[in-house]
């Protein structure tokens, strides 16, 4: 059974548990003080470092779909990679009556105090998207996402199968430890050389990012692969840079998906995209918090709940493209 189908079944099972009040399929704690609250009165807050771009709009749609299905109030806010703003948003959410909080943790130290404040107040919390190795330190009962080192290792193996020798790994958010972990994972399995490249702020100006990548590729002709850590960087910065270099064969793989990246995979211009299934990350974060609030469940058994990595290649891209167009992948 595919990972997507498993996640769908898992989400459905969670909803069934919420409806019948059973705790047989997950670990339990004592009942939450909010367990008797009506659905309409339940407020679940999802506070990410997201920028509202291609990736994060899908995660937000997942959270919104779960909230609508459950009939609860959702407060979703991104902080556009501003860790101080994210911490302030979490603190404001605590004061404003959040009964469950999900937060991404690319810079865990910046939000640690705020997350532990929520935990101390008896508010159930989870981390999502980034934070798989530190969620316990933040007081969260589980993490929903992919392990970024594991994803990087899988990418390294993909590039090995292509026979490549030197990968460039551009990091577009310097403070995001998850991106560095992806490069680290690739270096662990890739048989050649992996060079990390500072592309901080690249998403804010993709044309400038493309120019920087072209300069790096021009300066080192041994580079024969680019491991992009974002679909927009892959399709709108790395691909134009590679295509401008006549006589060079440089393979591109990416993390995450966009319509442009998927079309490039279909056209044979990008080799693969790692799918961490961000819609499921948003959806399951709300479901897990709902179960914690209403039924005292702590799903995960103290371990992360992985939503990826999966791979989209030319072999399965057609089946994925329609779901991306619908905004759910």
How does this structure look, described?
With 329 residues, the protein is an alpha/beta fold. The protein folds into 2 domains: 3-146 and 277-308, 3-Layer(aba) Sandwich (Rossmann fold), CATH 3.40.50; 148-275, Response regulator (Rossmann fold), CATH 3.40.50. Helices cover 46% and strands 16% of the residues. The chain has 11 helices and 12 strands. It has helices spanning 3-20, 54-70, 83-95, 108-120, 148-161, 177-189, 206-219, 231-243, 259-266, 278-295, 317-325, and strands at 43-48, 73-78, 100-103, 125-129, 143-145, 166-171, 193-198, 225-228, 251-255, 272-275, 305-306, 310-312. The strands form 2 sheets. A 6-stranded parallel sheet has the order 2-1-3-4-5-11, sandwiched between helices. The longest helix is centred in the first third of the chain and has 18 residues, at 3-20. It is elongated, with a radius of gyration of 20 Å. The two termini are 18 Å apart. Residues 1-36 have low confidence and may be disordered.
